[in-house]
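Suppose you are handed only these lines of text.
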Amino acid sequence: GDWLGMIGGGQLGRMFCHAAQSMGYKVAVLDPDEYSPAGAVADMHIRAGYEDPDGLARLAARCKAVTTEFENVPARSLAILAEASSVSPSAAAVAIVQDRISEKAFIVKTGVPVAPHVAIRHADDIRAAPPELFPGILKVARLGYDGKGQARVKTREEALAAFAEFQSAECVLEAMLPLDSELSVVLARGMDGRTVVFPSARNEHRDGILAISTVDAVSAATPQAVAAADAAVAIAQALEYVGVLCVEFFILRDGSLVANEIAPRPHNSGHYTMNACVSSQFEQQARAMAGMPLGNAGCHMSAIMLNILGDLWFDAATGAKREPDWRRVLAVPGAKLHLYGKADARPGRKMGHVNIVAATMAQAEAAAAEVAGALGIAFRP
Ligand code: ATP
Ligand code: MG
Ligand code: MG
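From them, the structure of the protein bound to magnesium ion can be written out as follows.
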């Protein structure tokens, strides 16, 4: 089969490998770590840094198409690879979305609302920020994820202190919005510009990390979900995006929809597609980068995804290390366990997820409650 290239060795790369390999592709993964979740299952692991010229040259020589699994890939590396190989998404698209300042400006240009915000380059920008931005959130413009590089700031003074703590890295200060709920749209756009959109997921975050995604196959098409899907497609078109992309949205208490951020890759909230949809987000990623027709994004089951964090390896009462009870999880009908092969469980680290699928949402909820009980995850439908 043809070779596909992946920059990044994390779990998203691992699940991509599985999907691509099942269609007969071979996958080369570029990652500096001796062990990485994706490197361990790839057909070839190129052990080099993401900017290493030799590593990039080997990847481009081997692969007819290259993509990435993390948004902080140096856009320059994508540009270098594009001279020898087909690269998607483009360096230009990734460069826009990996900086919160240009990301928000771009979203606004497509006509989709974002949270009121200002760019913070100097402490004076905080002093000059409009009072409506407090209470707010200060977010580093680059490299933040899972709520890292963010501070909730009630006052201007707190924002100045947080900015200093972030070593005056470029930030955005945005207003803390009254959220009703969170929703995300994962889509795939092919080289021909055709777009397929997965049913949107409702997301629950805990401590800034995604905990639970819920997709009701029957009633996924609420007015807000339809508006979010339209907005996500508009953003993908405007970026001339090729590949899988996720747009995270907030639904505010007044019902209005606000785009939060774009991920230029498959997304944690799209993991449910592995078991509830005809084609998973990872299969779509492989199809898109290879210039193949996209698959059916339809959802044949209702689904609940529970993230498995490293916390579950520690007894809540005693703190003692233990292995979660996978036997009890696998005994639940409709439960599909996905572990990423990470050896060291640390609190807050994404170790895997469980997809629970069922014909109806009520059944999925009952089964998810059982899985959550077995693992010690708080869950209320
Ligand atoms: P990810 O892991 O999704 O990339 P991230 O570190 O980039 O996360 P955000 O998505 O910006 O961070 O924020 C994380 C969570 O914090 C959001 O999902 C939401 O729950 C909350 N949050 C962020 N911004 C706001 C806001 N302006 N108003 C209210 N809540 C917010
Ligand atoms: Mg983010
Ligand atoms: Mg986010």
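What can we learn from it? Residues 145, 261 surround magnesium ion (ligand 2) (CB under 6 Å). The radius of gyration is 20 Å.
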